[in-house]
Amino acid sequence: MKSKLKVGIALSGGGIRGISHLGVLKALDEIGIVPAKLSGTSAGAIVGAMYCQGYHPEEILKIIVETNYFKFMRPAISWNGILKMESVGNLYKIYLPHNDFAQLKIPLAIAATDIQRGKVVYFDEGELIKPIMASSSIPGMFEPIVIDKKYLVDGGVLNNLPVEPLEGICDFVIGVNCNHLPEESNIRNMKKLIERTVIMAMNYNVYSRKAKCDYFIEAPGLGRFGVFDIKKAPELFQAGYDQTMKVIEENPAILDLANPSAKHLSL
Q1: Motif (DGA/G) spans which residues (predicted)?
Q2: 119: which of 158, 205, 215, 264 lies 20 to 30 Å off by Cα?
Q3: pLDDT, tens digit, 9 for 90 and up, residues 207-239
């Protein structure tokens, strides 16, 4: 019997750690859970856009590893950021040529932060690529993206688990965080101290939304991986997959959300 329940999936930001989201989506695909709507911040927005376009998780992993899209970024000659996010736009146009939320095969919402007003901004219609870039524009590292006269940066600053766009639309929400921090007995240098502090702040606004999720998937220890450590991509993918299978095993009721005949739409 088909499930008529609408499932929403919210994906956190986390740099290259967001590759673990692909393992999560693969596991959910395998049991027939395909979202009625997906939302994402930063890396979650990138993964979400590709998935909602119709690419399978393994395809997205291959694209990310083979293109290594950070090489498309160039220095920004300004006081606003070190790198210019705009230069990544042409890369996105290869894989999202329509550049339109309405053309995605699964509805998507993207969170960004209006840095001037100090508010979260959600996008789910109109132009697609600029909101993706805004959502993943890490403050101080990339220049803000300007949309409708708003200066936008990484959505994770204020909302690193955007469940709000799924509320009132989806019957069940699955939240996915890719930044779990292992215990650390020895902070060896300032770089580690800063990285850990940033992740702790990101996780604080994730965990404040955890109660809004019917199921919460968080592979242990991913916070130990660097934001740009592309060499760890296969390990991250597998961690997301393994943790999701564990959650399914421990919560068999999640199978009630599956539509056995559902298949993630391919291009």
Answers
A1: 154-156
A2: 215
A3: 999 999 999 999 999 988 887 788 899 999 999
